[in-house]
Amino acid sequence: MNQLKCNNIQAGDVMLKIYDGSIFSRVISLGQMGQVNSKVVHAGLMFDSNYIIEAQGSGISANDIRVQNKQVAYIMYRPINSFMAKGAGTCAKMLFDIQHQHGSIKYNLLGTIMTRFGRSGKAKTPQDMDELLDNVLAGKQSRMFCSQFVVYVYQFVAEQCGISANQVFGISDDKASPSALASILQYNPAFQEVGYMISNER
Predict the structure, then answer these.
(1) Which residues does 202 contact at the CB level (< 8 Å), separation at least 6?
(2) What does the angle CA 175 – CA 180 – CA 185 come to, to the nearest 5 degrees?
(3) How many angstroms separate the CA atoms of 85 and 10, rounded?
(4) DSSP 171
(5) In the chain, which stretches have pLDDT less than 50?
(6) Could you tell me if residue 28 is inside a domain?
(7) Residue 42 domain-assigned?
(8) Distance set, CA 127 to CA 24, 34, 105, 131, 174 (Å)
(9) Residue 202 maps to a domain
(10) Is 131 helix (H, G, I), strand (E, B) or coil?
(11) Is 34 left (phi over 0), alpha (psi -120 to 50) or beta?
(12) Burial class (CB in 10 A: 0-12, 13-18, 19+), 201
């Protein structure tokens, strides 16, 4: 794997945060104990080469990986389809903008923990995905955890590109823990592992 800097990052890149010893990391890693990639504790999507869009305590947030997330180490995956990548970056930013305006997408820590008890289920139907987006646009409260956000965005964008959501991630978004997402990405022909980013090196 290659060590990456910000100038290697593109819109739509999936960033997987590695365990850093924080209380949050410990809670998530403990909940994933016994799973492959249990040290992957968080996930987000890049909007451009500097800003990551992620579901966390305050809801959908945008953070500069050179400043707010400077101390975070990541493994990065990139979709093979560049149209999907750009669409995912745009969709993630749109959801952030909606959250910023309405505050309707809250963080779902319990949802992350509950993924421990099952990873079955197929992707939402296009109608279900549209309904969730309509509810968010209408200001109705919705909850997402980090890896669910990543999976939902890519499944939604895939359907807009005429690709079945299950071809991108064959799992229900609310079953995709960070460790499960990492495992899926490792063997997913729609994505390639690009490299890693060390904490405090941008």
Answers:
(1) 5, 6, 65, 66, 70
(2) 120
(3) 8
(4) S
(5) none
(6) yes
(7) yes
(8) 34, 35, 19, 6, 16
(9) no
(10) helix
(11) left
(12) exposed
pLDDT at 27: 84
Residue 154 lies in a domain: yes
Burial 16-39 (b: 16+ CB within 10 A, else e): bbbbbeeebbeebbebbeebebbb
pLDDT at residue 116, rounded to an integer:
65
Residue 64, CB half-sphere, CA atoms under 13 Å: how many? 3
Q: Residue type for 47, please?
A: F
Number of domains in the chain: 1
Q: Which domain holds residue 14?
A: 2-197
Q: Angle, to 10 degrees, between the axis of helix 126-137 and the axis of helix 146-160?
A: 110
Tokens describing residue 116:
């421990």
| CATH code of the domain containing 60 | 3.90.1720
Nearest residue to 108 (alpha-carbon basis) of 26, 173, 53, 154? 173
pLDDT in tens, 87-102: 999 999 999 999 988 8
DSSP secondary structure letter of residue 164: -
Question: Taking the model in full, what pTM does it have?
Answer: 0.93
Q: Which of 177, 15, 166, 178 lies closest to 85 in space, CA to CA? A: 15
* The pair of three-digit structure tokens given for residue 120, joined into one six-digit string: 């079955």
Give residue 121's pLDDT: 73
